[in-house]
Amino acid sequence: ILPGGKIPADGRVERGESSVDESMMTGESMPVSKAPGSQVVCGTVNLQGALAVRVGKVGGETALAQIIRLVQDAQASKCEVQKLADVLSGHFVKVVLLISLATFAVWLAITHTGGADLIYFGQRLDPTVYSL
Fold first, then answer.
1. Hey, which residues does 20 pair with through a beta bridge?
2. Nearest to 117 by CA among 108, 106, 125
3. Counting beta carbons within 10 angstroms of the beta carbon of residue 49, is it exposed (0 to 12), middle (13 to 18) or buried (19 or more)?
4. CATH number of 10-76
5. What is the DSSP letter of 32?
6. pTM score, two decimals?
7. Mean pLDDT, rounded, for 13-39
8. Compositional bias (Basic and acidic residues) spans (predicted)?
């Protein structure tokens, strides 16, 4: 792997010494020194010297593929608190609507039976409008 090249698979350095930018995997901005016997990870970038790497894992077995799979699984699933919040919010909406309808019905009954003064700012209101 020449300087500036991306490491194509997980493996172990057989020959050469270099520093590798592993920031995309670890978040660490400082390059990591690699010598024979050091492990390298797919997707990282060789910065200085040429490296001969024995491939250990490819494709879906690489550390990068495992991280991608974990992130996708985490995004696809909801935690228990989110599930509970979804269920409760569904019930909450129904309860609020029922309370609203009950309040409207009670006030409508009160206004139609003459139990409330329908004068508002000097004007007589329709019982339905007053109930709203």
1. 32, 46
2. 125
3. middle
4. 2.70.150.10
5. E
6. 0.54
7. 92
8. 9-18
